[in-house]
Amino acid sequence: MDPFQVETAWEGQPLTREVAENLIVEKKRNLALVFPPDFSKVLEQCQAGPVIVTKNGRPVAVLVSVLEDDELERFVLAHTPGFRHLLDDAEQRIQKTGGVKHQDFWRVVDGAT
């Protein structure tokens, strides 16, 4: 996935919600995320712990601070349903078959190198 560029102005003017919506309608941008002015304060709150995001009083998301790349990778994998399903399937197969014996595993690994 390519990184995205953060824009705070359009043609020399502040990038408001209305301007962002028009950019999408006019197909000048595919996506626009408009954050409240105090959003940096919310991000700072993440340093102390997860921040619950609500819509109409109901929780819809959680903002979590990530300090290191490997921490981000673990977080994404742990919260990716497809990966979680893959792990659950593997665990069920191990429960049914008993898995692979330690010696057999290393024999296959050593043979592959």
UniProtKB/TrEMBL annotation:
It comes from Candidatus Hakubella thermalkaliphila. SUPFAM superfamilies: YefM-like (SSF143120). NCBIfam families: phd_fam. Antitoxin component of a type II toxin-antitoxin (TA) system. It comes from the Bacteria. InterPro entries: Antitoxin_Phd/YefM, YefM-like_sf. Pfam families: PhdYeFM_antitox (PF02604). Belongs to the phD/YefM antitoxin family. This is Antitoxin.
